[in-house]
Amino acid sequence: MSLFDLTGRVALVTGGNGGIGLGMAKGLAACGARVMITGRDAAKNAAALAELGTGAAAFQADLTATGAAETLLADVLALAGRLDILVNNAGTNIRKRPELVTDEEWATVLDTNLTALMRLTRAAYPALKASARGRVINIGSMLSLFGVPFSPAYGASKGAVVQYTKSLASAWAADGITANAILPGWIDTALTRQARKDVPTLHDSVMARVPAKRWGDPADFAGIAAFLASDAAAFVTGAAIPVDGGYSTQG
Ligand code: NDP
């Protein structure tokens, strides 16, 4: 039996219809988990499902909507009967300097990246506790660790994700639940493709600073998600793990 065998376990990956979320969903599925994904865009959900194969399911949900977390959890449990692995990956950014951010923009980013994550995790607690091998995997960012001039709300939300993850790890270890954060560096997804359009010099500055000398790929997240979800990581909790080609080592 593989160290990373997830046969019989059910995983829910928010924002699993593309980018890093789909990369992690594929890794969990490859290790035997039954994977549920969410996204707002039905066409993206359908395309991702086709890549995930039998047993997978998609739920269309805006996780910032009132009651969305509870409805999603009920839907997952009605279909799959259990939840063992929660991957909180859905996220967004609005690129603005701090002096220009509106209340509405701040709320959009904080609601998506932090409050929706908290609500879904809270709603999932009974199911994760019943699993006895519950796993919470939260997606932070290199901006959980340091700042840039143009993403103040995003940085605030992602820093808080790490601290929230540590609280979960501390509170729920006695229930057999681990909670860890993954901190992606510069990854080639829809999110950063827009930033590359807005900032033509971005590609060169990333290449200059990333020791691995390449953009990350969503496939780079398959293994770390599978590891953190597995029995092999039973004693790993409260960690915040960069997956960034060495970017966060650069001062
Ligand atoms: P994508 O834009 O490809 O993915 C974002 C995902 O979140 C989509 O599946 C999107 O689904 C979903 N989503 C966004 N808002 C909502 C919402 N309100 N309700 C439900 N789902 C929502 O970007 P990435 O794959 O790059 O991002 C994934 C995570 O990784 C994010 O948390 C991001 O902050 C983080 N990250 C990414 C980095 C990178 O370089 N790419 C670097 C550091 C962190 P849909 O469009 O269908 O709503």
TrEMBL record:
GO terms of biological process kind: fatty acid elongation
Domain Ketoreductase: 9-189
InterPro entries linked to this entry: KR_dom, NAD(P)-bd_dom_sf, Sc_DH/Rdtase_CS, SDR_fam
Residues spanning the membrane: none
MF annotations from Gene Ontology: oxidoreductase activity, acting on the CH-OH group of donors, NAD or NADP as acceptor
Family stated for the protein in its record: Belongs to the short-chain dehydrogenases/reductases (SDR) family.
Protein name: 2-deoxy-D-gluconate 3-dehydrogenase
Protein source organism: Falsiroseomonas bella
Lineage of origin: Bacteria, Pseudomonadati, Pseudomonadota, Alphaproteobacteria, Acetobacterales
